[in-house]
Design goal:
Blueprint lengths: L5 E5 L2 E5 L3 E7 L4 H4 L2 E9 L9 E6 L2 E9 L1 E6 L4 E5 L3 E5 L4 E7 L5 E9 L10 E5 L6 E4 L2 E7 L1 E2 L2 E2 L10 E7 L4 E5 L5 E12 L5 E3 L3 E4 L4 E18 L7 E3 L2 E3 L2 H13 L13 E5 L7 E5 L3 H13 L6
Antiparallel strand pairs: 1-21, 2-3, 3-4, 4-11, 5-10, 6-9, 6-11, 7-8, 7-10, 9-12, 13-14, 14-17, 15-16, 17-22, 18-22, 19-20, 19-21, 19-22, 23-24, 25-26
Length: about 325
């Protein structure tokens, strides 16, 4: 057994995203080489609804999975697959963007909004897979509680208990760990896996003596065992582990591909209205497509006249009354 130490601390920076949501961007583009396959981690913790209620209106994604988890608060969401729902405290949304999806996430005013969204990269062979949505209810998340620790298992396994989600592409372990002062968390990991912990509150240390405090993301070194001990105020953290992809990353806003050409094509498709694939084939051979921006208006096009349809689609989107 080789115990992992803390190799690096990422602190992130305060940022404003969406329509004006204040958050901490813990992991971002410069961190990809060390944290592969984890691309981005946004953390939010606020008791002021003005920090977040403007939310994240309709926007596209391709080539990634997004996992949004809440400890406190409520976020309502919808996507271009027709899914609608809400994330409540202890629940999550696991979205596979694959070849292309549009969604929105709108936090609701709450006494406290506490949680995080993780971007998980998709392997090159799976980037254009079929989009998928998983609504993870709080009651479906297994909990293991003993010896001063409470671990909620979103994916992967902990002490032989399988998580609420079994990922289809990157086999990630994603745990919400709550430790009382002095309590110990022990988790075996693959020798090749990237493993880190993001602290919402408190602190923890590893046997080698290095420690991390609230708002730190601690990247663990090589080894097959993670052992951390909570500090005198306990520790609440997310623990993630997955094998790195070691593939090129071409990242443009909400789209993450492997080449610049793939990025260019994605944005071209957004511009010409072909980003979303056909969602309804009618009996008359025509296709019903949603407005890329609002997702509430639909127009029927004749697939046999693709060039003129693409132009008509752009004109229609620009005049769509529901986007005004």
């Amino acid at each position: 057994m080789k115990e992992r130490t803390i190799q690096r601390i990422a602190n992130g920076m305060r940022a404003v995203d969406g329509a004006g949501v204040r958050l901490v961007r813990v992991l971002s583009r410069p961190d990809v080489p060390d944290f592969d396959p984890f691309l981005m981690l946004d953390a939010f913790d606020s008791t002021d609804p003005a920090d977040y209620v403007k939310g994240f209106p309709w926007h596209p994604h391709r080539g990634i999975e997004t996992i949004t988890y809440l400890i406190a608060g409520r976020i309502e969401h919808g996507d271009s697959l027709g899914n609608r729902g809400a994330i409540d405290a202890g629940g999550a949304q696991w979205m596979t963007a694959g070849r292309g999806i549009l969604h929105q996430e709108m936090p609701k005013a709450s006494p406290r909004m506490l949680g995080a969204q993780l971007w998980l990269n998709l392997p090159a062979k799976d980037k254009m897979t079929t989009p998928q949505y998983r609504d993870v209810e709080p009651s479906s998340v297994p909990v293991v509680a003993r010896d001063g620790s409470t671990v909620r298992i979103l994916s992967g396994t902990y002490e032989g208990v399988a998580g609420a989600v079994r990922p289809d592409y990157v086999l990630m372990t994603w745990l919400d760990v709550d430790l009382a002062p002095g309590a110990v968390f022990i988790q075996p990991v693959g020798l090749d896996e990237t493993a880190f912990g993001y602290l919402f509150s408190g602190s923890f240390s590893v046997p080698a003596g290095t420690s991390a405090v609230a708002k730190d993301a601690a990247l663990f070194s090589d080894g097959d065992m993670v052992i951390v001990t909570a500090g005198d105020k306990g520790a609440r953290f997310l623990f993630g582990a997955a094998a790195p992809l070691r593939e090129p990353v071409a990242w443009g806003g909400p789209i993450v591909m492997n080449t610049r050409e793939e990025l260019r094509k994605a944005f071209e498709e957004i511009d010409n209205g072909t980003f979303l694939k056909k969602i309804e084939n009618r009996e008359d051979g025509r296709t019903r497509l949603p407005c890329v921006f609002c997702q509430r208006s639909f127009k029927v096009f004749d697939a046999s006249q693709q060039p003129s349809d693409a132009h008509a689609y752009r004109v229609w989107m620009s005049s769509c009354k529901t986007t005004k």
